[in-house]
Design a protein that fits this description.
By secondary structure, the protein is of the alpha/beta class. It has helices at residues 8-22, 33-43, 58-67, 77-82, 101-110, 114-120, 137-148, 167-177, 193-203, and strands at residues 52-54, 72-74, 94-96, 130-133, 156-159, 183-186. The chain has a 6-stranded mixed sheet with strand order 1-6-5-4-2-3, sandwiched between helices. Helix 8 (167-177) links the parallel strand 5 and strand 6 (183-186). Helix 1 (8-22) packs across helix 2, helix 2 (33-43) packs antiparallel against helix 9 (193-203) and helix 5 (101-110) crosses helix 6 (114-120).
Length: 208
C-alpha cells in the first residue's frame, strides 16, 4: 500500500498547521485571520494573502447578518453547493438565480450575461444579505451598478470572481467604489467558487 496520511482529523489539523506556519497574517486584522486561512486552504496558495483587500468589519457584519437569518446570495451553483449548511447559524437559505428561466430571457433582451441578469433577479432580497461571488465578473459588475444606482444594500460582499476578462477589473471596481459596505476580495485574476464558499463557511466554523 502507498504510504500516506489517512486519518481525516489529522489531515485537517496538519493542513491548518502548515498554512499558519507558511502564511504571514500580520497585515490582516485578527478578525480576518480565520477567513484568510480558510481561503488559502481552498486554494493551496499561502501567498495570496498579500492580494486580499478588505474592510476590517466584514467578518463581524456577515456573522451578525447570518445570525439574524439573512440569506446568502451566490452567483453560481458551485458556490451554493460549496456552502456547508450545517455551519450556518439559522439554517440560512442559499439562493442562486442563475438557472431561473427569466435570467436567460433578460440576458438576451439586455445583451448581457446570464450571470448579470441573475443578479437583477435577486431584487429586494439583497437588502441585508450576505453576497458571495465566486465565478462571474459580470455578476459583480452588475451588483455594483445596482448599488451605485441606490439599490438595496447587502450586509457584506465576498467577491472572488475568476478569469482573464473582467475579474481583476470588477474586484478593483468594488474596492474603488468605496460604498461603505463591508467586503472581502482578492485582487487580480485569481478567485473561484471554492474560495467564495470557504469564506462563507468560515463564518460559522470553529477557528482553524
Amino acid at each position: 500500500m502507498l504510504d500516506y496520511l489517512r486519518d481525516p482529523a489529522e489531515i485537517y489539523r496538519r493542513s491548518f498547521e502548515i498554512i499558519r506556519s507558511e502564511t504571514d497574517l500580520s497585515a490582516l486584522p485578527e478578525g480576518l485571520h480565520d477567513l484568510a486561512i480558510r481561503i488559502i486552504h481552498a486554494s493551496g496558495q499561502p501567498s495570496l494573502v498579500h492580494d486580499l483587500a478588505w474592510t476590517p468589519d466584514v467578518a463581524h457584519a456577515a456573522r451578525v447578518a447570518l445570525a439574524a437569518g439573512a440569506p446568502i446570495l451566490v452567483d453560481s451553483r458551485m458556490v451554493a453547493e460549496g456552502v456547508i449548511g450545517r455551519r450556518l447559524p439559522q439554517n440560512n437559505s442559499v439562493l442562486c438565480t442563475l438557472y431561473e428561466p427569466e435570467a436567460a430571457v433578460q440576458a438576451k433582451a439586455g445583451g448581457t450575461t446570464r450571470s448579470a441578469a441573475a443578479v437583477d433577479l435577486w431584487g429586494e432580497r439583497v437588502a441585508g444579505a450576505v453576497v458571495a461571488i465566486g465565478n462571474a465578473p459580470t455578476a459583480l459588475f452588475r451588483l455594483l451598478e445596482r448599488l451605485i444606482d441606490g439599490g438595496p444594500r447587502p450586509a457584506a460582499i465576498f467577491a472572488f470572481p475568476i478569469g482573464f476578462v473582467g475579474a481583476a477589473e470588477s474586484k478593483q471596481a468594488l474596492i474603488d467604489a468605496a460604498l461603505g459596505i463591508p467586503y472581502l476580495t482578492l485582487r487580480g485574476r485569481l478567485g473561484g467558487s471554492a474560495m467564495a464558499a470557504a469564506a462563507v463557511n468560515a463564518l460559522g466554523s470553529e477557528p482553524a
